[in-house]
Task: structure prediction
Amino acid sequence: MMTQDQLKQQAAQAALDVVLPQLQPDSVLGVGTGSTVDHFIDLLATHRDAFRAAVSSSERSTQRLQAAGIQVLDLNQVSTLPFYVDGADEVDHQLNLIKGGGGALTREKIVASVADRFVCIVDESKLVEALGRFPLPIEIIPLAREAVAREIRQLGGRPQLREGFITDNGNQILDVAGLAYDNRPAEFEALINNIPGVVTCGLFAIAGAHLALVAGQEGIARLELQD
Ligand code: 5RP
Result:
């Protein structure tokens, strides 16, 4: 029986198997944030000559990439990323995601938006029939905290400030329990992102993942939407 951390390591290895054969010496890879991605970065370290550099979605991942001898570029220096590899807190079968458990959701969404393909790596505990059990992280401008919280309550959510946490962008996070997306996560994403003071919410549904690699006791399940 593999532990959750061993399953995360398996998912990271599966992502490396997908990505590595397609990288060129001048490729720049988008890299997400979290404990699953930490495994991916550790695996990448032994292949650092197979690609040029990475763009990172957090200070945490930047430090780990640089410690592994991988060059980290600013996103402004890069116009194309063949892949973005990242974990998630929830994934549904349409490859909609909830992200932001690690608080890096805004940079994650930005880097993902530039990539040709978002490869999501998770252990099987993250795969759900419908998004909504994991409290939705929302990055907010601190001045707007109470104003945003009131709007969120109107939507049926129960916002809670992530105490003592400041994002890499200098903002705060509200974790919101109790939201029901009614199978319309993209509509909710737009609605929440539209509240003044919200930087972004952790729903990745307007643009979800292209491929999810889900590690379970029986092996890797590959979820991919047909075009
Ligand atoms: C960070 C994220 C992570 O991808 C998400 O929290 C999953 O983390 P882990 O791989 O540690 O389970 O969205 O903002």
